Amino acid sequence: MKRLFLILIFTIPLGALAQQTLRLEECFELVTDNYPLAKQTGLLENQVQLDIEALRTGYLPKMDLNAQATYQSDVTSLPIELPNVTLEPPNKDQYRATLDVNQMIYNGGLINASSKVKEAASKVNQQQLEVSLYGLKSQVNSIYLSVLLLQENQALLQAKEEQLKARLEDVKAGVKYGTLLGSSEKTLEAELLKLRQQFTELRYNKLELVQRLSLLIGMELSSNVNLERPAVFMSETQSERPEIQLFDLQKEQIDFSSKLISKTNLPKINAFAQGGYGNPGLNMLDNSFKTFYMAGLKLNLNIFDWNKTRTEKQSLEINKEIIDTQKETFELNNNLELVKLKSEIDKIDALIFTDREIIVLREDILKTAESQLNNGVITASAYITEFTNLYEAKSNLNLHETQLLLHKIQYEITKGSYYNN
C-alpha cells in the first residue's frame, strides 16, 4: 500500500498537487493582455503605419499610361488656298498613346501634415482602447472580491461545522447517559444538514464566479483556486484617469487637423513630362503617326477659397470647446463618485467596529449556552439560536471587511491610481 502511494505521488503532476493561487494584480494584468479588445493595440499600430506609408507615396513620381482612338465629325481647315502649297486637313479618325509622368516638387508640407493627423488619430484610438480596458478593472475587482468573500465564508462554515460536530458528540454522550433528551441530538443533526446545503450553495456560486473571472482574464482557473486578499492603501496623490489623457489627445488631433487645413492653400509645384505616339502628333497638319514629348512645371495656388479655410478652423475650435466641456463633466461625475465611495468606506469602517463588539458579546453568550445545554438547562434549539447568532455576526464581519476592501480598491480605480498601467 505504501509503495502504491509513492507511485501515485511521483506520477501525478506537481501542478495537480499544488493549489492554484491568484492575486488581484495578476487579474488586472491578465485582463489587459488577454481580453479580445486588447488585440486591437497591434492592429491599430499596423494600420497607422500603412496609412502613413500610403501617404508618403505622394513624394514618388506618378505615372499614367493613356491611350485613345477617336472619330470626329469635323476637323480644322484653312478657308484660303495658298499658291503652290497643298494643305491636307487632319484625319477625322485620330489615335494617341501617351505616358504621363508627374513629380511633386513642393506641396506646402501637405503630406507631412496629413501624416501627423493620422498619427494623432491613432493615438486617440489607442487611448480609447486604454479607457475600455481600464473600465474592465471595476468588473474584475467586483468578481474577484465576490469569490474572495465566498472563499472566506467557506472557511467560516468549516469552523462552524467543526464546532457543531464537537457539540453533537457532547450531546450524544448526554443522551446516552440520560441527562439530555434525544430530540437535542436530532436538532443538532438537522443543523448539520442545513450546513451541508449552505456548502453546496456556496460551492456552485463560487464555481459560477470563478468561471466568469476565468473568461474575463483569459486564464483557466480551477474551481478550488485560492484568491489572495489584496492589500490596498488609500493614496493621497491625485492621479489621472485614462479618460483625461484621451480628452487631451483629442484636442491635439484637432490642432493637427487645423494645421493640415492651413497647408491646403499653400502653393503647389509639380514637374510633368509626357511622351507619346499618335496620329497626328503635336503637329496637327501632319497626317502620319509620330512620336512626341513635352515637359514643364506647373504651379497651383488657390488665391481665394471663399473663407472655407477660416470656417473649417472655427468649426474645429468649437470641437475643442466641446471636448473641454466633456472633460469638465467627466471630472465632476468622477469627483461625485469619489465622494460617494469615501462615504461608503467611512460607513463600513463604523460597521466593522460594531461587528467586532457584537462578536465578543455573542461568544460570551454562546459559552453560557454551551454550559446550559450540557447541564440540560436549555434545549438544543435554544443553543442553535445562539450558535447561529454568533456565526451570523462573524459572517457580517466578513461581508463588511470584503465590502470595505471592494470600495477602497474601487476608490483607487475611480481616482486612477490603482494598478494603472
TrEMBL record:
<dbReference type="InterPro" id="IPR003423">
    <property type="entry name" value="OMP_efflux"/>
</dbReference>
<dbReference type="GO" id="GO:0015288">
    <property type="term" value="F:porin activity"/>
</dbReference>
<dbReference type="InterPro" id="IPR051906">
    <property type="entry name" value="TolC-like"/>
</dbReference>
<dbReference type="GO" id="GO:1990281">
    <property type="term" value="C:efflux pump complex"/>
</dbReference>
<keyword id="KW-0812">Transmembrane</keyword>
<keyword id="KW-1134">Transmembrane beta strand</keyword>
<comment type="similarity">
    <text>Belongs to the outer membrane factor (OMF) (TC 1.B.17) family.</text>
</comment>
<keyword id="KW-0732">Signal</keyword>
<dbReference type="GO" id="GO:0009279">
    <property type="term" value="C:cell outer membrane"/>
</dbReference>
<protein>
    <submittedName>
        <fullName>Outer membrane protein TolC</fullName>
    </submittedName>
</protein>
<keyword id="KW-0472">Membrane</keyword>
<feature type="signal peptide">
    <location>
        <begin position="1"/>
        <end position="18"/>
    </location>
</feature>
<keyword id="KW-0813">Transport</keyword>
<dbReference type="GO" id="GO:0015562">
    <property type="term" value="F:efflux transmembrane transporter activity"/>
</dbReference>
<dbReference type="Pfam" id="PF02321">
    <property type="entry name" value="OEP"/>
</dbReference>
<keyword id="KW-0998">Cell outer membrane</keyword>
